[in-house]
Specification:
The protein has no helices and 19 strands. By secondary structure, the protein is mainly beta. Strand 7 and strand 8 form a beta hairpin.
Length: about 190
């Protein structure tokens, strides 16, 4: 949803409807492509809307010919990219949002000043920061991340540990950034 009765659509396309749109389009409530136009040179894999900012993750290098590898934030009121300055060395396949932050996950090893597979972005300052005192990421990639509604996050993937805590494929990170005691084990791949 775009908070106006329509939707943002991301993917691997160069045209949407009859209009040129590379990777991202906005569709109004009548199903028409809007004038909103950001051109990506690769695939858009994930979208997250927080108030009037649209976070776009994927596998791309340039947005409107500006170097913005794999992650960009768009101010929807001005239809301009925000000051979010990140360098991401791999794709961003999942984005999740709550009132304080955006969590990004994917097949990357480095985002700005932080670590593997999962990163937090403060939504007020639009700055990249570690998950509080959460010093280590899951030991393998994250496939899904969902807000728990209370400032924390459920993470799913093919990991066996989060930090030093054993967690098989699913875990919970509290709102303070620490791994919670909650555990559920799964012997199947979760996606």
């Amino acid at each position: 949803p775009d908070n106006q009765g329509g939707w943002f659509v991301g993917g691997s396309f160069s045209e949407y409807g009859s209009r040129q749109r590379k990777g991202l389009a906005q569709i109004d409530s009548m199903g028409r492509v809007t004038d909103f136009d950001f051109q990506f040179d690769g695939d858009v894999l994930s979208l997250a809307l927080h108030n009037d900012t649209l976070y776009v993750g994927g596998e791309f290098n340039f947005v409107n010919e500006e170097h913005k590898p794999n992650l960009v934030a768009v101010d929807l009121l001005n239809e301009e990219m925000t000051s979010l300055k990140t360098q991401v060395d791999g794709n961003i396949s999942k984005l999740a949002v709550n009132d304080q932050s955006i969590i990004i996950a994917g097949d990357h090893n480095w985002v700005g000043p932080t670590w593997e597979h999962v990163t937090q972005i403060d939504v007020e300052s639009v700055s990249v920061e570690p998950l509080h005192d959460f010093p280590n990421a899951p030991n393998y990639g994250i496939d899904q991340i969902v807000s728990d509604g209370f400032g924390g996050w459920f993470v799913l993937g093919n990991f066996t540990k989060i930090g030093s805590e054993p967690r098989l494929k699913i875990g919970h990170i509290n709102d303070d950034g620490y791994v919670s005691e909650w555990q559920l084990t799964s012997s199947i791949n979760i996606q």
